[in-house]
Design goal:
InterPro entries: Asp_semialdehyde_DH, Asp_semialdehyde_DH_beta, NAD(P)-bd_dom_sf, Semialdehyde_DH_NAD-bd, Semialdhyde_DH_dimer_dom. With about 375 residues, the chain is of the alpha/beta class. It has helices spanning about 10-20, 55-65, 115-130, 175-195, 210-225, 255-270, 305-310, 330-335, 365-380; strands at about 30, 45-50, 75-80, 85-90, 95, 100, 110-115, 135, 170-175, 195-205, 245, 275-285, 290-300, 315-320, 340-345, 355-365. It folds into two domains: about 10-140, NAD(P)-binding Rossmann-like Domain (Rossmann fold), CATH 3.40.50.720; about 180-365, 2-Layer Sandwich (Dihydrodipicolinate Reductase, domain 2), CATH 3.30.360.10. Strands 11-12-10-13-16-15-14 form a seven-stranded mixed β-sheet. A six-stranded parallel β-sheet has the order 6-3-2-7-8-9, with helices on both faces.
């Protein structure tokens, strides 16, 4: 079957920016080009709804669904009232975006949510009450002890027993993007030697703050190069040619919410409240894909060569670790890719023996950090 053809998000953002400078684009329908109409529509397949379909992750949901030939008998495109009425062409068919209302989930088997925490809190339980299985990309339910927090390659057992066709709704939470990217690499090593302490420093792209932030980074870059003051609508300081502490609210303990997500979500996913986790999250002027420096302390010895072998065989992970050529993972080479890349695999010389490792991880925040992980969860429901 022909591969799904689509613009990269970089290209879509660039085109949207050009459109905003040359004329109105509101009337133009969003189009997912295909070389051939794919045969995902199946009468016996589940019915889908994509909530927040006009956002960056919502659009990526559609890309991933098409890339993976996810089977469905029908699909609803749902968004806010201001987006209702827009047209989206998906797999050769035209869809009109519907306003998100409580009645929208009637007959929906799987609902993929990416419209923000407040929307999820309001409409997630409504969808579940109507029999839908909700896969939620927000932070609304992640730390609810009754809601599974799932990375399919890491803890699929957490959603055991939840399946389409049982006539019962359920909530499943997608972890935070930085947590997913980190644990895709750390978990295979943890399963072998047990991590007792993890120190994470993140370098997070504009994509984590949505399409508007990506567009502002492009605009600011142009403005700064032209000697103009940068437009600062999304962040309260210059982003182009700069970096700063993650913009999440800072808590009373001095950590921001993004950093505490890494702490708390890791413990829940690993089902281990004793593991020590600390994080520093930084926003960097990269368009798409997060990078993370991860320091691991193990209960049992694990040398770097064995660690490299473990990572080479881990699902969803690719090793890029060429010391001679100084070639290691970069955000650019994982953008629009499914796999998380790992490199800089080396013994922590500050620890005795082989009980510590440093690794460097890069992953596409919109794809594996959000949409792909959610669709993989949906695949496990079939």
């Amino acid at each position: 079957m022909a591969a799904f053809t689509r613009l990269t998000y970089h290209q879509r953002v660039h085109n949207n920016l050009l459109s905003s400078l040359t004329g109105p684009a509101a009337a133009r329908p969003r189009t997912f080009a295909t070389t051939r109409i794919r045969m995902s529509l199946q009468e016996s397949a589940p019915s889908l709804a994509v909530v927040g379909v006009t956002g960056a992750v919502g659009q990526e949901f559609l890309s991933v669904l098409s890339d993976r030939d996810f089977p469905y008998c029908s699909i609803k495109m749902l968004a806010s009232k201001r987006s209702a009425g827009k047209h989206i062409t998906f797999q050769g068919r035209d869809y009109v975006v519907e306003e998100l209302t409580p009645d929208a989930f009637q007959g929906v088997d799987i609902a993929l949510f990416s419209a923000g925490g407040s929307i999820s809190k309001e409409f997630g339980p409504i969808a579940v009450g109507k029999g839908s299985i909700v896969v939620d990309n927000s932070s609304a339910f992640r730390m609810d002890e009754n809601v599974p927090l799932v990375i399919p390659e890491v803890n699929p057992e957490a959603m055991s027993g939840i399946k389409v066709g049982k006539g019962k709704g359920a909530l499943i939470a997608n972890p935070n993007c930085s947590t997913i990217i980190c644990l895709m690499a750390a978990t295979p090593l943890h399963q072998h030697a047990k991590v007792v302490r993890m120190v994470v420093s993140t370098y997070q792209a504009a994509s984590g703050a949505g399409a508007a932030a990506m567009e502002e980074l492009v605009l600011q870059t142009r403005e700064v190069l032209e000697g103009k003051p940068p437009t600062c609508n999304i962040f309260n300081q210059q982003y182009a040619f700069n970096l700063f502490s993650h913009n999440a609210p800072v808590l009373s303990n001095g950590y921001n919410e993004e950093e505490m997500k890494l702490v708390n979500e890791t413990r829940k996913i690993w089902n281990n409240n004793d593991v020590k986790v600390t994080a520093t999250c930084i926003r960097v002027p990269v368009m798409r894909a997060h990078a993370e420096s991860v320091n691991l302390q193990f209960e049992k010895p694990l040398d770097e060569e064995r660690a490299k072998d473990i990572l080479k065989n881990a699902p969803g992970v690719v090793v890029i670790d060429d010391r001679a050529a100084n070639r290691f993972p970069t955000p650019l080479e994982v953008s629009n890719k499914d796999d998380v890349a790992v490199g800089r695999i080396r013994r922590d010389v500050s620890q005795d023996g082989d009980t510590g490792l440093d690794i460097f991880v890069c992953g596409d925040q919109i794809r594996k950090g959000a949409a792909l992980n959610a669709v993989q969860i949906a695949e496990m429901l079939l």
